[in-house]
Design a protein that fits this description.
The complex is a heterodimer.
Chain A (H helix, E strand, L loop, with lengths): L12 E11 L6 E12 L4 E5 L6 H9 L6 E6 L2 E2 L7 E4 L11 H11 L7 H11 L15 H14 L4 E5 L7 H18 L2 E6 L2 H7 L2 E6 L4 E7 L14 H15 L1
Parallel strand pairs in A: 3-8, 3-9, 6-7, 7-8
Antiparallel strand pairs in A: 1-2, 1-4, 4-5, 9-10
Helix pairs in contact in A: 2-3, 2-4, 3-4, 6-7
Chain B lengths: L1 H24 L5 H4 L2 H13 L1 H34 L1 H16 L6 H8 L3 H25 L3 H9 L4 H38 L5 H10 L3 H33 L1
Classes of the chains: A alpha/beta, B mainly alpha.
Chain lengths: 261, 249
């Protein structure tokens, strides 16, 4: 086999010199959300992106999702440049983005329908993912009848149901209360451990970032940029006790330091 | 709770009917002017038996049905298009707003000049009355679609067509139905008033004729007919609407 055809295991997602900019309203020029970002994410790793509001962490994630076009630089997935959304990636949104007229089950079916899945009973498949995220019994509820945590479970099930290689989560627990947030984090990890898809998770919670991650990408603002990449050597599977360990507290101090710069 | 509400509402209707029946008998008002429930009912039985009745009802119903169907058939797609494409909206907004602000009955004389006093002019008035609320609400429905729903659809590789069919259409449906309900009463109004203005047949024509002949019993029976139709049709659309809203929340 030609050496060049071997997929480099070290770069499932590669971000090269990426700059993302938005037009300001009323022609007030452009706002640079992400400036010259470089990043390599290995297959099967859980990477969190942490940073203050306005540091461009969501923009970085949405560019990898193909929902935002870069001003310069590029994103490569499996060595191929990203030009738009693809079946290899699925996104979990901060505001859930569920269709209010669809039931839980039909919301989970949504991605399958759009990606024209066939040769399989879509409802049965959706039902399996509804059960995976612990919503058995709520299949025929509408989103407005569910709590925030349950809504995001639907969002996660919808993303997992299309069997993506890469899971992109944009502050998925940002609007949940602290306790629900911790529970969801633990459950997300438990689901992730089952097949270790590459996961990219944006958050502004330091503990959440450490608890979930193999690697933490720390970002700063004005302009939005990557300032540090920290590898987290905490053993898996992780539990509530992990957060009380000495090592965890040390990571917390280190990241606080990075963010304060 | 609902039973209590029904009881009180029924009570007010009964009280009104009783007063209407008794007041002329007690000599408080003149029945030639006010008529009476029993006289309206008696007149109704006589009218229903006449040969012209079915013809008048079918003329009015056809005018309404055709005009309103056209209003839905043109108003809904056009409204959705205008909501989806801002350029079209900017282009057509001034004329639409101008027609919206104009009482559509003010157009009646010119419509009669163009289309004559037959069914066509009534169909046109029903259409003009119905189409504007349908169009405006369909447009508002599309504009009320949340960006995040569209972005979510795109993240699953949805194209323009998918976004329209899977997001825009279901999301704006409740608003479309609301427009249809609002358009309905304006279309009914259009048909009846157009018939009263210049016509050869129809329930509105009958109302006008009985009025000029000073036959209040028969006149009021026809009015009652129109109002019952309006209530029934509006309730049907409202039931559909409520079903969609509960599903859509």
């Amino acid at each position: 086999m030609d050496a060049r055809t071997v997929v480099e295991p070290g770069s499932h997602i590669r971000v090269e010199g990426l700059t993302v900019a938005y037009e300001k309203p009323r022609g007030a020029g452009t706002f640079v959300a992400v400036s010259n970002a470089n990043l390599d994410i290995a297959r099967g790793t859980f990477v969190t992106i942490v940073g203050p509001s306005g540091c461009g962490k969501s923009s970085l994630l949405l560019t990898i999702a193909g929902l935002v076009q870069p001003a310069s630089g590029c994103v490569l997935v499996n060595g191929k440049p990203v030009s738009g959304p693809g079946r290899d990636r699925a996104v979990v949104f901060q505001d859930f983005a569920l269709m209010p007229w669809r039931t839980v089950l039909d919301n989970v079916r949504f991605g399958l329908e759009l990606q024209r899945w066939s040769g399989e009973d879509l409802t049965a498949r959706a039902r399996r993912y509804v059960e995976l995220v612990g919503l058995k019994g709520f299949e025929h509820y509408h989103p407005h009848q569910l709590s925030g945590g349950m809504r995001q479970r639907v969002g996660i099930a919808r993303a997992l149901a299309v069997d993506p290689e890469i899971l992109l989560l944009d502050e998925p627990f940002g609007s949940l209360d602290a306790q629900t947030r911790d529970e969801m984090g633990q459950e997300l990890l438990a689901i992730w451990e089952q097949n270790k898809k590459t996961a990219l998770f944006v958050t502004h919670g330091i503990d959440e970032a450490i608890f979930l991650a193999d690697q933490i990408v720390v970002m700063a603002k004005n302009p939005g940029r990557i300032t540090e990449i920290i590898t987290v050597d905490l053993p898996r599977p992780r539990t509530v006790e992990t957060m009380d360990s000495k090592l965890f507290i040390e990571y917390r101090r280190k990241i606080r330091g990075c963010l304060a710069l | 709770m609902t039973n209590y509400r029904m009881m009180v509402s029924t009570l007010s209707v009964m009280a009104f009917l009783a007063l209407w029946e008794i007041a002329p008998r007690a000599g408080i008002v003149d029945a030639r002017y006010t008529s009476q429930p029993t006289r309206v009912i008696t007149a109704g039985f006589e009218i229903v038996r006449t040969a012209g009745f079915l013809h008048d009802v079918s003329v009015s119903l056809s005018e309404f049905a055709i005009g309103f169907a056209l209003a839905i058939g043109i108003g809904v797609p056009l409204g959705l298009l205008l909501g989806r494409f801002p350029v079209l909206r900017y282009l057509l907004d001034p004329p639409i707003m101008a027609i919206y602000a104009t009482p559509h009955l003010a157009l009646l004389p010119i419509i009669v000049v163009w289309l004559g006093i037959g069914m066509q002019s009534k169909i046109a008035v029903a259409f003009v009355g119905g189409v504007i609320p349908i169009l405006v609400n369909s447009m508002a429905g599309v504009r009320g679609v949340e960006r995040s729903w569209v972005v979510a659809a795109r993240s699953f590789c949805a194209g323009e067509r998918d976004v329209f069919v899977k997001v825009i259409l279901p999301a704006s449906l409740p608003s479309v139905i609301l427009g249809i309900r609002l358009g309905l009463s304006r279309a009914v109004l259009g048909v009846i008033v157009a018939e009263m203005y210049q016509s050869q047949a129809g329930v509105g024509n009958e109302i006008m004729r009985y009025g000029s002949e000073f036959r209040t019993d028969q006149l009021l029976f026809n009015v009652l007919l129109v109002s019952l139709f309006g209530v029934a049709a509006t309730s049907a659309v409202r039931a559909l609407e409520e079903k969609l809203w509960t599903a859509g929340k």
